[in-house]
From TrEMBL:
GO cellular component, one term: cytosol
Entry similarity comment: Belongs to the thymidine kinase family.
Protein name: Thymidine kinase
Organism: Saccharomonospora viridis (strain ATCC 15386 / DSM 43017 / JCM 3036 / CCUG 5913 / NBRC 12207 / NCIMB 9602 / P101) (Thermoactinomyces viridis)
EC number: 2.7.1.21
Length: 230
């Protein structure tokens, strides 16, 4: 009897964190014991955040975290671990994904990973790529996100002042759209420090392939009324 690794993936805002929290809720209700892990939640906190408004505390996975050690520490505290919920799994290193696979194979733990596949340049994140290579099950997350033109949106464009960016740090973690009231963008990013003005204009927008290629963000290029994700 071994565990399984399942990777649920999709564009930004398709319901991945919500699904993660739903699965955790239903497994716990059945008496199974799990750990929630996350790397770079949009909130900047060690939690899993759903845009619907539900959050759950989680253990932050750092760049050098050995996830096997996290499970061993739980065992040492006397906690049985039946499953892991890992959100924002695209940010894991390939080595951390391999550690999750080892936990499934050797410790009979079911591992549920959730994340986006490609970055703002439409390139696979290393963690997502390793999950596509190793997972037992791959599941596109069910809620369709549409491009402004109505076609299915698959590409997570990074947009600054209506322009689709093609260069920059792969990791740019943001928790909400700019907050004009506080003057603060509420942004957390692990890239080089950016000015608040620079942060205030950067957001993500899911586009279809054609409009991602063409860099067209829709008639209201200012982003007002557009689905602003982060
Ligand atoms: N006020 C709302 N009422 C109903 N559904 C909502 C609401 N706000 C967000 N959602 C749903 O939540 C989804 C985003 O959920 P979330 O788990 O945060 O996505 P992801 O983790 O993939 O970015 C949206 O696609 C939408 O379907
Ligand atoms: C495309 C892209 C995204 N990110 C960040 C932005 C968000 O914080 C997360 C995705 O979160 P969601 O729950 O799927 O909305 O990833 C990034 O750092 N780099 C990128 O290229």
């Amino acid at each position: 009897m071994t565990g399984k690794v399942k990777f649920s993936y999709g564009p930004m805002d398709c319901g991945k964190s919500t699904l993660a929290l739903q699965i955790d809720h239903n497994l716990a209700r059945q008496g199974r014991q799990g750990l929630l892990l996350v790397r770079h939640d949009r909130s900047g906190n060690a939690q899993i955040t759903s845009r619907i408004g539900i959050t759950r505390q989680a253990l932050e996975v750092e760049a050098d975290t050995d996830v096997r050690a996290v499970v061993r520490q739980a065992w040492e505290r006397g906690k049985h671990v039946d499953y892991l919920i890992v959100d924002e799994a695209q940010f894991l290193s390939p080595e951390q994904v391999e550690q999750l696979a080892e936990l499934a194979d050797e410790s009979c733990i079911d591992v549920y990973c959730f994340g986006i596949a490609t970055d703002f340049r439409s390139v696979l994140f290393p963690g997502a790529q390793r999950l596509f290579e190793l997972a037992d099950e791959l599941q596109p997350v069910q809620v369709e996100v549409l491009c402004w033109c109505g076609r299915p949106g698959r590409f997570n464009a990074r947009v600054a002042d209506g322009v689709v960016l093609r260069t920059g740090d792969t990791v740019f973690v943001a928790d909400t759209v700019p907050n004009p009231d506080s003057g603060s963008t509420g942004e957390v990013n692990s890239g080089p420090t950016r000015s608040s003005t620079e942060l205030a204009t950067v957001r993500y927008q899911v586009l279809c392939r054609r409009h991602f290629r063409l860099g067209e963000v829709g008639p209201d290029a200012s982003g007002q009324g557009q689905l602003q994700l982060a």
